[in-house]
Amino acid sequence: MNNYELAVILSSKLEDEQRAAALEQIKELVKRFGGQIKDIDEWGKKKLAYEIQKEKEGFYYFIHFDAESTAPAEIESRVRIMEPVLRYLCMRPEA
Asked: What is the pTM of this model?
């Protein structure tokens, strides 16, 4: 099992319930591919460095989890096509 961090920026146009549902969907993806979520760091609404899809702000989430080496590619392929996700990045933090 490896340690990973999934950074996700969700659209600022989402209502609270929609944002919670999108985050829950991402958590379910992590669990479906054998990941064990350690914690979720919510940064809240922040200004983006540049405009993405005509949006200037987004909600930032950092999901820390343990999983096998094949899980990040599977998770990214599903997060990529999610409507409310503006940007995402799954990486292995330095030890």
From this structure: 0.91
